[in-house]
Design brief:
Number of strands: 9
Distance between the termini: 37 Å
CATH superfamily: NAD(P)-binding Rossmann-like Domain
Shape: globular
Oligomer: single chain
Largest sheet: 7 strands, parallel
Strand order of the largest sheet: 3-2-1-4-6-7-8
Structural class: alpha/beta
CATH architecture: 3-Layer(aba) Sandwich
Order of helices and strands: EHEHEHEEHEHEHHHEE
CATH topology: Rossmann fold
Strand content: 15-25%
Amino acid sequence: MNDASNVPVTLIFGATGGIGTELAGRLAKAGSRLVLAGRSREALERLAQETGGLPIVADATIPADVDAAVSKTMDAYGHVGGVAHCVGSLLLKPAHLTSEEEWSATIATNLTSAFHVVRAATRAMQRTGGSIVLVSSAAASVGLANHEAIAAAKGGVAALAISAAATYASRGIRVNCVAPGLVRTPLTARLTENESTLRGSTAMHPVGRIGEPRDVAAVIAFLLDPANTWITGQVIGVDGGLAALRTPAGRPASGNAIQVSSQAGR
């Protein structure tokens, strides 16, 4: 019989979103013990039934909720080896049309929540070490029209990961970040279900398709894996080449203004 203390314990914030759900299923199949955090109790309970995870209702923009989720994980399993922050929103508007409320909400949902998670997770991992994975965006490193607010927020997430990685490396705490391109999730449905928008977005990704949740979840799972303890401080593009490559098929983003927000995750 395996020692329970050697079984990976992973806490996923934004567990019921497209990427979070895929990650939970992947980790459950690998034998991890899961704690699933999100705002929808009903969605969490459904996912818990599918994965055997422990559901915890938590709003990642509220520090007390994040702290409580980490504490409940520690109470249930005695340690937490991995934490994934899959919380996000999407606002596609030029700066001059973005309201103060939209800006504040974008920063809170994406960047502030990530900071709360890093702070709580690093406190819990001081003695045991562990892995923290955040989700940025390709928009943080390449200029895309109408992405000012979300690019700023996701750029902050990437910078947070790199700085925290430097701070906690000597304590065995790894912090990494993935930066997806457009991924087909419930959060992006207004983009991916519009034929002309999807066609233009697909053309921007050199591999010739947009992402699927499995593409991103696979890399997050890799970074969480205790076998990969020599990887920290990395921002890994999982974007079909969007940020780094230029091909003749590449075209600029459309000018449509779109706002969607969900702590179910990306």
